[in-house]
Amino acid sequence: MSRRSDPPSALEARAFAVPRQLPVPGIIANAAGKLTLSTQAAQPAHVRYLDTFDRRLRRTDLVLEHVTLPGATWLRYRAFGRTAGLMEAPDAPLPAFARDVSHYRLRSQLSALIDVRRLLVVAETRGRLTVSRGHDREGKTVLVVECFAARRGPYRLTVRPLRGYERFARRAIRRLRDVEGVVPDRSEPMLAASDGPDATFGGAAHPARVDLDPDERADAACKRLLAALDAVLDVNAPGIEADLDPECLHDFRVATRKARSLLGEMKRVFPPSVTRRLRSDLGWLGQCTGPVRDLDVHLLEFGSAARDCEEGKGNSAAALRDHLAASRTRAYRALCRTLRSARYRRVRSAFRKFLESEPPARPRSENALVPIVALSAARILKVYRRILAEGRAIGDASPAEALHELRKSCKRLRYLLEFFRGIHPAKPVERTIARLKRLQDNLGEFQDVQVQRAVLQEFRESAGAALDAAGGAAVDDQCAALSERERKTRAEFAARFARYDSKRAHKEFAAALGRGRR
After folding, report:
1. What is the 3-state secondary structure (H, E, C) of 197-249?
2. Phi, psi of 140 (to 5 degrees)
3. Average pLDDT for residues 10-25, to the nearest whole number?
4. Which residue has the higher pLDDT, 329 or 321?
5. Among 417, 385, 409, 399, which residue's Cα sits nearest to residue 506?
């Protein structure tokens, strides 16, 4: 945990556990041998371990720790159970998101892994840190040994090799191994740390991917898929109520949409009355969660736009932010009331009761006993043809609603492909999904522009006379920028759809619906 002014080495740092009754200064002096030691006074140290609500770092065996000493802070990114850092960023404040990290390489790696998810303090430890440096005859620092004394447990000695002087570190490591009672410590410090302020949120087992049997009856297979989505709702609901991370609400909404889509697309698998009731309940959940999610996205989008505002128009940008934030606060309070309501409990209870019921031996629904591989292929093909028909009908004069309907059809197809990717040929399915994603990106951006323009219009109307000339000009600038984005996105649509509606794409799609693996 020493300051990062010392050049790192390719040799990995080694940690040792030292019982508290042993004389640590003498042990360090013995490890340094004939080197001249200089030891800083012990300093209070605070180590925070950061992760996302769904523990993406821990699930990939990575650790992000933020270290605070008097007058110094840094981030260390390392492999779980390893002492050496994969990457370190000095002078780093505690980040809330990957975008808050100024170190370019670390920010890039974190962004690729956690995307826009919030970083939570899931564990922390406090103690005192003493740093000893060994100097050669010329006064050069050739060895660093840290001693971290947590509030409980043994001392942790860490030998940090320096580039070009690895032989001193190797000698110190050998001498430490010879000390009775001192043992190599390969444990992960995060596991011994105390719970952080956000430890109680998230961390539940991530719902596993459902492995389907191609010959499994359709109703049983669909219930297992729906049960996995219900688990996503369970995992994310506490995070929504705590307002920890906007992505908790996003995951909740995606799971709700997927469940509703599955019930709607897999026709005549369950009794019509059951399907209608469940889809109605899930639709209600979608309506309740929509306003907060939309405002989260608007705050992110318009926050970026506000940073690009010209000087002199910042007041209107701040007013827009305040307007969106106030709207979001009201919508969030309404959502919390919904999550605590009797109706919400009834909806979730009814869904769970349906999932826990055994499929009937002699179901009345005509597709209940159809092998899932056959039924899913038929439904995927139907939605695929619907997309082709809708896309081919769109021209330069088509209204925005036509692209919105196509976007919804693309979502349905993607959900079906992701649900049943395990029982259809893998590579063609992945290629079809990738091509579909590119088309969805275009349609999604077009839809975002439509929604953001409506938000700006609502803001202009609500501000009324309070919006001065400079503020009006700023809103006009943002509307103009949105119009330009709309023009470019609309112009790109034809090319995106042409790649989707190509001979090669059709051939890959046909391969994706080939005979399921046996």
Report:
1. CCCCCCCCCCCCCCCCCCCCEHHHHHHHHHHHHHHHHHHHHHHHHHCCCHHHH
2. -80, 140
3. 90
4. 329
5. 385
